[in-house]
Each structure stands twice: as C-alpha cells, then as structure tokens.
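Quick one: structure for this chain?
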Amino acid sequence: MGRRYLDTQVPSEGAVCLVQGMLCRAGIPTFEAPPFRAVYDLIAINPNTKKSATIQVKSRFQTDCDRSFVVNKFGADFFAFVFLNMGNWYSHEPYVDIREPEFYIVPKAEVERTVDIRKKVPKFFIKHTDTSFGKFRDAWHLIAQTLDINIETLVRGNSTV
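Got it. Here's what it folds into:
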C-alpha cells in the first residue's frame, strides 16, 4: 500500500480556524491576518488597551507523525502548534487512531531557544515523552496575559485550562 495523497491546504486552513475559534471561545477577539502574511496567520487584540499579539499556526494532520514542525520564520509573538490527529498516515492501518485535535500555544522566545535555524530544515519538536512542553498544551492564557485580558476558566471537553 503506497502513501495516500492529501491536499494539505484544507486541513491547514482548518487548523487556523480552530485556533481562531478557541481564542474567541476564551474571550479573546481574534482575526485572520491580511492575505499573504507569511509570518503570522492570526491577530488577537484587546480592544480596550489596543494591545495585540500575532500568532503563527502550524499544523500536522497525521496522528502518527514525528510531532515536529518546520519553523524558519520568527515574526509572530506566539506559535500555535496543532496536531489535527486525522488518523495514521505512515502505518499500514490508515484510518486508525483518529483523535481530537491537540493545541500547544508556545511563545516566540521558547521556539527561538529550541529551534536551530542553522539546520537545513529547522524543526520544533513536541514529544509525548517530553513533559516540559505539557505546560503549553491549551495554554490560551499566555496570549490573554500578553493582551491584559482576564479570561475565565476555559473548559474544553473534560479538561479545564
């Protein structure tokens, strides 16, 4: 069985919409960036203080991916790394292991500290075994703090963020 082909533009745009929806759900007004902004995808604002934060959304659709993201531009204030978990892609069991999406909200400084930009393909990794990145899972509050927005507790499924 060969690898399946998927136009990644649709899942990628879906990830941007998911992040925008989660931020709006948390009470953070968020808008899509103007077209052709390669550095960021979303702009979150506080209309009262006029503060803003830019967000670059990176997504992976495969549940069985290596949990890495290519990062070669650092113009956004935050990175939203989204695992869409649309099923196994690299194994011989294609539509197995479909899960809910996972969101990791990581400040630019943390990504810059971790990614070696000198590599041919600079990547940021979020591994299941690395507990230090657990603090960034569903960390919408980091964007709210930057904008001076006091958000209520965001409930997602059975977990509270």
